[in-house]
Amino acid sequence: MLLSLVLSSSLVLAQNPAPPGEKGAAKGDQPSQQTVLRMAKDIQKEILTLPNYSVFDWITFSFNGYNVTLNGYASRPVLKDSAERVVKNVEGVAAIDNRIEVLPLSPNDNRVRTQAYVRIYGNSQLSRYNPNRGTPIYLSPARIAMGLTQDPPVGNHPIHIVVQNGNITLFGTVLNEGDKSIAGMQANQVPGAFAVQNNLQVEMSQKPQYSNNPTER
Q1: pTM across the whole model
Q2: What CA–CA distance (Å, rounded) separates 90 from 57?
Q3: With contact defined as beta carbons under 8 Å apart, do 30 and 24 qualify?
Q4: Does domain 107-204 have CATH number 3.30.70?
Q5: pLDDT tens, position by position, 137-160
Q6: Structural domain boundaries in the chain
Q7: Region of residue 213 (left: phi > 0; alpha: psi -120 to 50; beta: else)
Q8: Concatenated DSSP letters for 99-125?
Q9: Nearest 5°: phi and psi at 35?
């Protein structure tokens, strides 16, 4: 049985049962559900408060006993190392398998990220998801022209924009199917984008936290 938990719009975890005969690394048995929840909340807090975790990144994590696997995408190389460092400090974590993929440092991807951000968070319907409120008029033309990868907008953004080789993938959670569709349409209008994968989840259609299948967000 695969136990999955959704802790926020930005992080996903799944607890995988250890292979037969394998025990938890920190103790002689598997962690209790209470321990997993506590560790998960601590990991969530550590990653979400990283200063270099932004709207252009997406990190998920899973448990195998007391071992943690990190997955996802980092728009800047420093994030991969930073995430591993803070998770190592979480009480109970015995080992980390860091599978976070560092995205290419591409000028075109930088432009695509920037334009996708402006189109999505500047849309009148989607601007309510902007933690900085309203359309992103605070971004100067010069800053937009330079791209936002190295200096992303601050705040906890519900819609994450991952760009790899000109391809856009949207992760996160929105309130309804209409907003999900609008976000996808806005991303599809970005110049230089080759394809869009809309992985946004709708909050009102979320299943209960506990499921036999991992919840992808």
Answers
A1: 0.80
A2: 21
A3: yes
A4: no
A5: 467 777 778 889 999 998 899 999
A6: 3-103, 107-204
A7: beta
A8: -PEEPP--HHHHHHHHHHHHHHHTSTT
A9: -65, -40
